[in-house]
Amino acid sequence: MPDRAPQPVDRQLPTEEARDLVALVRDIVQREIAPHAAEQEDAGRFPREVFSLLSESGLLGLPYDSEFGGGDQPYEVYLQVLEELAAARLTVGLGVSVHSLACHALAGYGTKQQQADHLPAMLGGGLLGAYCLSEPAAGSDAASLRTKAVREGDEWVITGTKAWITHGGIADFYTVLARTGAEGARGITAFLVPGDAEGLSAAAPEKKMGMKGSPTAQLHFDGVRVPDSRRIGEEGQGFAIALSALDSGRLGIAACAIGVAQAALDEAVAYATGRQQFGRPIADFQGLRFMLADMATQIEAGRALYLSAARLRDAGRPFSKEAAMAKLFCTDAAMKVTTDAVQVLGGYGYTADFPVERLMREAKVLQIVEGTNQIQRMVVARHLAGPETR
User: Fold this and answer.
1) Active site residue 370
2) pTM for this one?
């Protein structure tokens, strides 16, 4: 079967610096990520050395201010970097997105002193972050979270359990949402908790369908003490901070989804143009040609949608609805494209010898994380028709 190498995505980037940045990412992908992705995912190995390299290369803080070690890049550039990383290995692409999400609260709502004290190490100092909002009984209904933070003098004592935490147990810092006041959204506050804080422990990682190299675990806070200087924003502002972070994070998930879909399409095209049946490549048959065309169209539509939302964000305009639309469309498209890629490969697609079965398993989680796609539909509908009546 002839080897048909996929062509790099022809990206519309705003500056020469951005083009150089994407070239750097592609070089790292080809040398350090793609060659080991299948083996390490199968072994459940988290590539911490890759994240160290990305940090050293200035790729863990791209959308943040260079004053504190960020890359000063617009979101439309940052998201295309995520797409390149996720196409090679979702554990890496989604991991960078989660790290950026964990930095969002401090970068957007911290004091200048807090930012100066912590952001340089978070953005470019080799640290890895995690975001702690969900709980065992508070997933989509995040405002019902039960983890508590009680003030004692100049400290806060945090007690409770967080669930579904990407990088749980291996992160160097956690952005934690905890209840400091009354029930509901207005009683929640954000904190920056060190990964080695006394009283903080992680359960065994979840056994997942895909992304086996990315640890997802419950975190237990047993009287974890943090100084008030690690409170982010005002008391009771935490839920608003969390929603702001999720709007941006949903764009990260959308970009990762398109990366996974693009990788699946590349595999399907390579297989279909090389596999011979009835004396000619199976790509000659109209049924498969139309599948490939539909897959490519969904990918291009998704890419255009997430970039349109990113440009709204970069312009300082509201983008919550568009972020929800992008997350919804791109992750549904990734599930469809990866499933079709398995079908193109037939029996081979169902085996672990080809990457499309892994890509299909990984696409599924993207319809769930950072707000299920049912929640995204609710967000979009509220923008169109107003809040639901009760």
Assistant:
1) yes
2) 0.96
What own/partner pairs with CB < 8 Å and gap ≥ 24 does 340-347 have? 340/264, 340/268, 340/291, 340/294, 340/295, 341/264, 341/265, 341/267, 341/268, 341/295, 343/291, 344/268, 344/271, 344/272, 344/282, 344/288, 344/291, 344/292, 345/267, 345/268, 345/271
Q: For the stretch 183-210, what's the b/e string if a residue is b when 16 or more beta carbons lie within 10 angstroms of its beta carbon?
A: eebebbbbbbbbbebeebebeebbeeeb
Sequence-ordered strand ranges (E) for the chain: 129-132, 148-152, 155-166, 173-179, 188-194, 200-202, 216-227, 231-232, 276-277, 280-281
- Asked if pLDDT for residue 306 goes beyond 80, the answer is yes
Alpha carbon 13 to its chain's center: 21
Q: pLDDT tens digits, residue range 189-224?
A: 999 999 999 999 999 999 999 999 999 999 999 999
- Kindly name the residue from 83, 357, 362, 370 that is annotated as catalytic: 370
In the numeric block, the tokens 């995040």 are attached to: 142
